[in-house]
Specification:
InterPro entries: MFS (IPR011701), MFS_dom (IPR020846), MFS_trans_sf (IPR036259), MFS_YcaD-like (IPR047200), Sugar_transporter_CS (IPR005829). This protein is an all-alpha fold. It has a single domain, classed as Growth Hormone, Chain: A (Up-down Bundle), CATH 1.20.1250.20. 79% of the residues lie in helices and 0% in strands. It contains 16 helices and no strands. The longest helix has 30 residues. The two termini are 18 Å apart.
Length: 395
């Protein structure tokens, strides 16, 4: 079946994804702005944001069981209902513990969504057309996520932000329930042994962990980085959109580089772009519009790292039956990094403000460059998928 026919057969799923990513982007990206307007500290923002990724870890482990029991479509509806309710419940109380609990539930549901989507894509996307299907998926992801962050520029009230994000998430469940579509078969779940996975693919594990810290640290705390400089919510929206745009632009470039030069070279190249971009913040005091350009470059530097980690893991894999365990191990480390990033950034920005954000990225990217330099380069002949794809999990 041609890629066009496959995409057409999954139209309902892609429409659902568009609503899902836009709604998630709005609630994830706006939380820093909302908490800062409430007068909360940077540390509190980091802690509340990290609760999302605690939920993500639980979702990574437990969502598989839910989906296997009730099926993909009903699971999508269940996660959507809990996500939407949790988003709306933010409006009834401003208690921070209550908000942390809601963020936890949203994290569980969002990663449950991802498991549903990835199972679907992996079954429908055979090797010959997988890169093109996942390339279309990337377009949906970046456009929808970008639109979600741009909504912040409308300066909506706190109440309207939560209601709109809930509405978008609830809309995401409608397409799959309105048409008849064949559900995929969920592969059996296997236990994850991180030490074993690290022995197989150390560069992939370290890269995925750092990618989790940097990417989700950006989504959670970049808003605070801009607000601490005295700019408004509109500047936050444009800054984050430029970062996402850079990530979208980087996918094709880094995919081509990693195919020709190896994953190690591509990881070093990406990390170096991000590293030198953040050094500019150290030596200069860039005006706002120049910061938008730097956000674009930072997006190029960090948003490909997770995909490159997955590609590297598959390149060094010698036992094909271990591919699922390896992919889930890389995802688990990415989720763990996603949990640590906002917490560390919250602490650093509490005491060092804007400089805490800058030096965190410099240190993490510098460490990744040095770690990667000491690892062997592998030019894959068997890896036929385009490594720039963001969600290449289980083959």
């Amino acid at each position: 079946m041609s890629p066009r026919k496959i995409i057409r057969s999954m139209t309902a799923l892609f429409v659902s994804m568009a609503f899902l990513f836009a709604g998630n982007a709005l609630i994830v990206s706006s939380i820093g702005v909302i908490l800062k307007e409430k007068g909360e500290s940077s540390l509190v923002v980091g802690i509340i944001s990290s609760c999302f990724f605690v939920g993500a870890l639980i979702g990574t482990i437990s969502a598989h069981k839910i989906i296997s029991k009730i099926g993909h479509i009903r699971s999508f509806g269940l996660f959507g209902a809990i996500f939407g309710i949790s988003a709306m419940m933010h409006t009834i109380s401003e208690n921070l513990i209550f908000w942390a609990t809601l963020r936890f539930l949203i994290g569980v549901c969002y990663y449950g969504f991802l498991m549903v989507i990835e199972s679907w894509l992996n079954e429908k996307s055979k090797n010959a057309v997988r890169s093109r299907i996942l390339g279309f998926y990337e377009i949906i992801f970046y456009l929808s996520f970008g639109i979600g962050t741009l909504i912040i520029a409308l300066n909506l009230s706190r109440h309207d932000v939560f209601i709109l994000s809930a509405a978008l998430i609830l809309f995401s469940s409608l397409p799959l329930n309105l048409i008849k579509i064949k559900e995929p078969v969920l592969p059996a779940s296997n236990p994850i042994s991180i030490p074993k996975v690290f022995d197989i693919a150390p560069l992939a594990i370290v890269t995925s962990f750092i990618a989790g810290m940097l990417i989700n640290g950006f989504f959670s705390m970049a808003s605070l980085f801009i607000l601490l400089q005295g700019f408004d919510a509109k500047a936050v929206s444009y800054f984050m959109f430029c970062g996402i745009l850079g990530g979208f632009f980087a996918q094709t470039i880094m995919g081509a580089i990693s195919d020709k030069m190896g994953r190690k070279f591509a990881i070093i190249t990406s990390a170096s772009i991000g590293f030198f971009t953040m050094l500019i913040f150290v030596f200069f005091n860039p005006y706002l519009y120049f910061q938008y350009i730097l956000a674009f470059l930072l997006g190029i530097g960090i948003f490909c790292l997770y995909a490159l980690a997955l590609a590297r893991a598959n390149d060094v894999l010698t036992i094909k039956s271990k591919g699922v365990e390896l992919g889930r191990g890389v995802l688990f480390c990415y989720s763990l990094g996603s949990l640590c990033g906002p917490l560390i950034l919250g602490f650093l920005m509490q005491y060092f403000e804007v400089k805490g954000f800058i030096w965190f990225y410099i240190f993490c990217l510098g460490f990744l460059i040095l770690f990667a330099i000491n690892k062997p380069n592998i030019l894959s002949k068997k890896f036929s998928k385009k490594p720039g794809n963001m969600v290449m999990l289980d083959d």
